[in-house]
Each structure stands twice: as C-alpha cells, then as structure tokens.
Amino acid sequence: MTQSTDATGETADNTYDVVVIGAGPVGENVADRARAAGLSAAIVESELVGGECSYWACMPSKALLRPVVARADARRVPGLRHLVEGALDASAVLAHRDEYASHWKDDGQVGWLDSIGVDLFRGHGRLAGTRRVTVTAADGTVTELAARHAVAVCTGSRAVVPDLPGAADAKPWTSREATGADHVPGRLVVVGGGVVGVEMATVWQALGSRVTLLVRGGGLLPKMEPFAGELVADALREAGAEVRTDTSVKAVRRDGATVTVELDGGDLIEADEVLFATGRAPRTDDLGLDTVGLEPGAWLSVDDSCQVAGSDWLYAVGDVNHRALLTHQGKYQARIAGAAIAARARRVPILETDRWGAHSATADHDAVPQVVFTDPEAASAGLTLAAAEEAGHRVRAVDYDLASVAGSGLYADGYRGRARMVVDLDREVVLGVTFVGPGVGELIHSATVAIAGEVPVDRLWHAVPAYPTISEVWLRLLETYRG
Questions:
Q1: Which parts are annotated binding residues for FAD?
Q2: DSSP characters for 41-54?
Q3: Do 437 and 345 share a structural domain?
Q4: Which of 9, 10, 96, 123 pairs as cysteine with 137 (C-beta 3.0–4.6 A)?
C-alpha cells in the first residue's frame, strides 16, 4: 500500500488499479474504460482537464474555422450570396471560439471525471519506478501513487519551434497562440504547409490578416494525395494569401511590434506575427522515463494494445506513441488500451490481438480518417496511392471530378473538388479514399467503414447512394472502376 502525507499531516491510501498521466481526451477515455470495467482509476493533469484538444487545438480551431467555411458556402448559393458579402465580425468569431474553449476553464471536465468515479490529482506526473507515479503540485507538495495493474502515459505532444537564429527571442506563435489569439494581426507569416499551417492560414486570412504561407516542400498537405494540397493552395491564393513553396526560413528577428523573417535566398518578409507549424514532439522529456529504463524525450514504442515494448504494465496512448497524431485515433487507442488493461487485470489467458481484434488498434495502420477543415475541405481515410504502392500492394487509383456529381452543383454554384479511390486489385477491396471539396468532411466516415470493414467492391456496388447528394460520388467511382 502506498501512502502520502497531505497538508494536514494526514495519510491517505493512493493505490489504484490504473493510474493515467495526462487528462486530455485520450487519458479521459483510458480512465473511463477502466472504470467501466470495474477497475479503480486515478488521473494526473498538470494543466487543464480536457487537454490540448479542448483548449488549444481541435475545438478552438474548428470554432474559428466554422464561420469562415459557412460564409464561403453561403457565397456559392444563389439568393444568399448578397447577404454575406461583408467582412466577418472578428470579435464575434473570437467570442464564439472562447465559448467552445470553455473560456479555458475545466470545471465541466472535472465534473465529468467525478461523475464516473475517477480521482483527479493536479500537478506534474512522473514515473518513479515500476507501477509508481509521483505528482508534484503547484505548491511543491509531492503525492505518491501506485498502480496494481497499469500506468498509462497519455501526455500527448507539443509544438516544436525550429532552432533558427533569433527564433526564441522573436516570440513566435505556435498552434496554441494561433488558436487562442485575442486579436487579428495585420500581417501573419505562417511557416509550414501541414494541417495546422493551412487551417490557421485559412482562418486568419478570412478574419483580415494578410497571410504569407511558407512551405519548405513542393506543396501543401504532403501526407495526403497531391491534388488535395493543390486545391487548398489554389483556394488560399484566391482568398488573398500568398503561398510560397520550396521556401526555407533562415532566421527570424523581432524589433518591437515587427517580426522580420529572412528566407534562405535572402528575401525579407515583415509581419506582425509569425506562426511556426513545423512539427510536434512528445511530451516525455520530464516524465521519469529513465526510472524504468526508457529514454527521456522519446516517442514511446508500443504494440497494438498500446503496451510499451518490453513492459507488462506500462502503456503509452495517443500522440505520445507517434502512431497517429489525431484526437479521434488517440481516443480509439484509449478504448483498445482500456479493454486490454481490463482483460489482463482479469487474467484473460489470450487477448484478441489479431487483426481487427478487440485488443488491437489495427485501424492505426489501415483505416485512419482525417479531415482538414479548410475551404475546400480535404478528407481522407486509409492509404494514399503512393503509400499503398510503397507497402507492396497491387493497386489501381480511380479518380472522379466531384463537380460532375449532381449533388455538388446543388450544394454550391461553381463547385470544385476531386475524389480518389485506391483499390487493392488482388483482394478487390478499398484501401484508401480522398475527397476534396466543400462539405466533404461528412463523407469520410463512409470511406472509413468501407476500409475497416474490408467491404468487397462488388458488395459496395449494392450500397446505393441517395440522389441527389454529393455521396453519389461513390457510385461514380465504382462505375469508373468497373468500366
């Protein structure tokens, strides 16, 4: 039994079946699954319960993007566009964002933890040996926790600012500042063409910033099909943003209210703020990993049940294992890990760790969905054509112009978009789907179901899409495939 001394000198038993470090959506789901299985659980959080997603990522960013995309859609509808020709009300948009970030207060999330019987310990959690965790509170008080069965590390990832001359002193934005800003900068330089870069460029350009997007590679959204980045880049340019590809930043300096970005070629760009959206690193550098023989600051390698390699009690769930840095995939992993922890606690002799088993996060490999909430939206599930070929599959890519689908024209005048389906020719199942166009985010779950269910193409032929909807693109893709 492990005990700790509180401020009054009294002792309390702090042994639980499961101890979770990190109370973001992933950690909350691990704790919830443990409690649902009848296990006791404690959760440790150094910031706000609800984590990055609730306050600095998914929720505030999508709250900022929704008015932008809604206005763009309205402008494409006859009889409506004249009503939305003016500028967005930036103060109202920021206030809407504040509501969705719960004004950066976590009372509701704390109440939910209490409702499911999970004990919350506020402070910095560190491993202190096998099945042991210390929690250092803001006042320096240290509490020791012990786990009978498992410790789950759910500490997520943090934005990385590249080590460039002047970058630290320039006070650059990361994703946190970009989603939490209380004013619209007159000029904004965004460095990075991934999801955060393109979404934040979309938001701030629409709210009134003059945005310059700098991309080191040849295009945007490099992990998706090439046409996704091309269509998003075209739309950003049409909205007034400057998009520069094959461009690297050499140095950054701040002089009062002005930031100067120096490019490798010598060009200088002046701005009010610069956002670096250039990558993520695991939050494991001050986690006590060395006490259990692991490297501090490293991504944690896990099996498909999210158990850390070489351990029978330590789990790493969500961003921290680097399998799929997406909130929904982290929550999926949490459900898998929670089931695995409960099964092992009950000493189930054989876990279902085979492909698509109850204790196997197979979808991390084969059926990851993602939506980029730009205008147009870009949505994908499963493998791109390049990834499928690299994995050794014999495949065929089927492309279709989304503007040729009846429902697209009804959705918006001048609709522009594209769809691709990647088919495994040996098994005749879908390996990947990508949609780019207004409103396509709501289509992607159908693709995810087809991929995860390994539905044969011949069976998909009998899944009739409603007419006239954009979903009719499924029929057109299948017709093109069948010839």
A1: 62, 125, 155-157, 319
A2: EEEEESS-TTHHHH
A3: no
A4: 123
